[in-house]
Amino acid sequence: MEPIREELDQEDACSLSPPESVNSDVAALASGEAAAGNTAATADLDSEEDEVSLPPSINSDGEPEEKGWQCCKRNCSSLFAEETLEAESLQQNLGTASEIQQRKFDLLRAVYNKNDEDHQKKGLQFFFQAERVCRKFWEHQRGVSPKTVDHWLKLCRAGQITLPKPGPKLGKATPQLERANLWFLEVYQLLADPLALPGSEDQYFFGRQEPLHSEQQPPAIVREIVSDTSHPLYGLSLNITPTKGHSSAAQVLAPRRHVNFSTLLDFFRFYCSDVAPSEQVSRTTWERGYNTFWARHLILKSPTTGNKCSVCLGLDEKRTNSTSEAERFAVDQEKMLHLETVKADRSVNTRGNLKCSDLKNFQPNFQHTGCVKIMIDGMDQQKFSMPRARRLQGTSEYGKAWKTNVHVTGVVIWGVEEQYYLLPMDLPKSSSMECTILAKALDETKKRLKEIDPSYDLPCHLIVAVDNTPREAKNQYFAQFCAYLSCKHFASVQVEFLQVSHTHNELDQRFSSMASLIKRCDELQSIDQLQSYLQAHMRPAQGRSLSVHVLDNHWSFSQWFAGQTSCQLSGLTATKLQPHANHLWRFSRREILEQELIQNNHDEWALWPENPLDICMQVKQYISSPEMSQAPEVIMPYQVYQKLSKNNLAPSSLNKFAPTTLQEFRKTAELVGKPPWNLLEGQSYLLDLCERNEAGVVPKPPDLFWVFSFESQSPRLDPVIGPALLLEDLPPPENAPPRPIRVGAKKMAMKRPAAGPALPARPIQMKRPASSTDLPAGGLANVIDLEVSDRPSSAAAAPSAVAKSEAAASAEAKSQPSPKAGGVKKMRRPAAAVEKPPGSADAIRALPGFECFGCSKCRKKQTPKIGCQLCRGKAEAGQDGFHCSPEGWIYRLEPQNVD
Questions:
Q1: pLDDT tens-digit profile of 730-759?
Q2: Which contacts (CB < 8 Å, 24+ apart) does range 446-453 have?
Q3: Lowest model confidence (mean pLDDT) among 260-264, 491-495, 541-545, 867-871
Q4: What is the 3-state secondary structure (H, E, C) of 671-700?
Q5: What pTM does this model have?
Q6: Handedness of CA 469, 472, 475, 481 (dihedral sign)
Q7: Do residues 747 and 862 make contact, with C-beta atoms less than 8 angstroms apart?
Q8: Could you tell me which residues belong to the region Disordered (predicted)?
Q9: Distance of CA 390 to CAs 190, 221, 387, 568, 676, Å?
């Protein structure tokens, strides 16, 4: 043992102590010897290192040797060669991820099938290349976790052959982003405007891209695709019935809408003022939600797109001019209140659309509580010009030619039908047109309901949503027509107006579809061709039916009510001095109203006894207002309704074309009818229109069967006023009170005597002489007799010598300078010193110093002596010589000369 120990000691000493040559080399390097000596020393060192030996436990790289992987006591890996295991591993990992998983499942299923029934129930025996191995080795070699093996064994016991396809991965929870999306959805539904622009369609529905008329051109994308299943609009679209001819697996399309904000910063400021600070998200999250989900569907309105709300625009300008943060905060709060009212109105409007779209309203058991909603709106005439041809567009002659416009009015009866009425250019757009279309729509709706089910009928409550325009709907004649409908046909009629510049509705988007459809047509030569084309190619929305009608004329309802009701409604529209008006009218019978106090401001009607069938009018400032803005008022007593007769209803007169218009239309007819265009039908349409208008032929209006039918002699009695479309939880509006509505006796205009001369085109006012001593023979009466109604026309004889002398005296008096001292001084007559004369026009003219009736603006009207609102205000204040007679006539006196 001692010799062996000595040898080990010598080996350790050699391994620990360097040789002497190494020490000498180090000393030589430290002393700075020559390079030759260094080279020799290095060679000696290399030769010594080759002779040094290390223990076998120490590796050359200084790391411990890796031990082999062992699965169990048997060490299953030792049964196979290392090259075999590597080749098997490479073979099973070829292909895609799904193919690899299916291959591993097949291997496990083969192992499962190789075991007998006892082992399949109790415990499996695993095999690898016909050799029995442990489960740990099999899982390690196949690259499968124990949890996955347990899951696959359950599938094998259930008889599964292939792996089930993985479902979609659940997205990461983003509560802040979802909170912002809910706010965007509310803005999209209640505040955004469905403008009539390309790409702003009206409904969510399944459908493909609608192909163009020409197959050579690619299809136009008119709607935005909702591809994200987590998008709120995708969930809303799934509740809509698929369009006919399209499967539910088609792409989900959603309409575009526009918000009245020019920049994203203004939109975010509204969000900060609309949402409580504790519920707000960060600006980064808010912008990420808008850019990710809503940038294509909720579009910011550019300054040149559509009409802007004057209130919103004024508040934006006011905020720009603000100098402090407090002022800007106050403006933001004011705008928020305004937009909250707009959102509330749209919410009520949307709920009414959904409620009235249910066909249950027309069933016999629900007619007393059901309601039908009709939306009426008109489209710009310039988008429908006749005749038109695609091959003519772009030519200079066709561009300069005058073309006739067609007025298109759309009517949507929610849940039933879409109706479009085409009117020629010379037909006036007025309240009579609106009343005729509403009556015709009710007739067509009743026919359509009978086609759906013979038991269906119109319910007892009617809701009419119209545009906020005084020319067509927001006037006294349309209000009287709605009151007429509530006499026997309906228990209540409700008229709704959205706020000005926020009146865009679903019909605007339907018009957008119609306009894009007409642009793709090759040619349209007449209004009849337009009707046929729209009936064949226009596709309704939400499963409704569609019909297109041509109205050659309408009934003159305005003259019908003016001649038989003898009442005047004031306060229906807004004015400059009173900018707030009511946006909801409701007409119902006296017996249905619960209020005890019902106003009756008509002098004649107040003397009549009250009747349960009197029609009363209730108004609200906004559609969503929880309370009425004033007490109910009688608008059509039962005695007046009984006097209304259809026999007194006459057709409306057409608008006369100017001679230049007739000439240009005939030139256009000659242009389109000559070769190579040969639009003969368009030429005939233009010539017939000009000939009919020039001859003054009045076409026949449509027949209105149901409105003037007597099949229901007894009125529909129902204590229920109508659908509960009010937001009771809203606080009363803090805006200024609306303009009160008054129903009074109609003011009769003074007519000129039949035997008098014709009225001149622009009357000349005769001034009174400056001094009473300069009056001609006959006194002041001769001057007063030359008033407008008694003055000869330009075709009459020349003025008399007396009139010439009066004019010369007046001119001489005006040319003389007024003395500064001791002369005549002009003094205004005090308003209290003038006694109010009786109401005759001759007595007013006989007053000393009479000058004229009203102002120059009033005298241009047909009834100038009533006076405008400004003149009446001056008369009440006694300014500028204006006075008011007991009959309400406004006249003016010149200042009296006082010595």
A1: 444 456 678 788 787 776 655 544 444 443
A2: 446/706, 448/413, 448/416, 448/417, 448/545, 448/547, 449/362, 449/416, 452/359, 452/416, 453/362
A3: 867-871
A4: HHHCCCCCCHHHHHHHHHHHHHHHHCCCCC
A5: 0.59
A6: negative
A7: no
A8: 1-67, 751-776, 808-840
A9: 39, 21, 10, 50, 14
